[in-house]
Design goal:
Elements (H helix, E strand, L loop, with lengths): L1 E13 L6 E4 L2 E7 L4 H13 L7 E9 L12 H10 L1 E4 L7
Parallel strand pairs: 3-5
Antiparallel strand pairs: 1-2, 1-3, 1-4
């Protein structure tokens, strides 16, 4: 038995008090064995992907339990943007067989 979570992250860069700011993030779909600490396990696996990146610090902003077949487009009313989000989705499994 497994559990699947969507994990949203966000990063923010500030280039000084009078210059522009940049914001972005990622969506991870993480599937782990079911258990008492399944959510912690999912966050730890996703963190391996984003904890060190070229942009600085990336923060987890949401974690939701999902059906195994969930894709970001399921929650997006704009079909084109939903397809865009699906293409950029990072999928991680506990056995590390599927990482993109």
């Amino acid at each position: 038995m497994t559990k699947t979570y969507s994990i949203e992250t966000q990063w923010l860069e500030n280039y000084g008090e009078t210059t522009w700011k940049s914001k972005g993030g990622e969506t991870y779909k993480v599937t782990v064995p079911d258990g008492r600490y399944a959510q912690n396990h999912a966050v730890a696996l996703a963190a391996q992907e984003f904890i060190i990146n070229e942009l600085g610090v990336e923060y987890v902003i949401s974690i939701e339990e999902r059906d195994t077949g969930w894709m970001p487009s399921d929650d997006e009313p704009d079909e084109e943007y939903g397809n865009h989000k699906d293409r950029w989705l990072k999928i991680i499994t506990a056995d590390r067989k599927e990482v993109n």
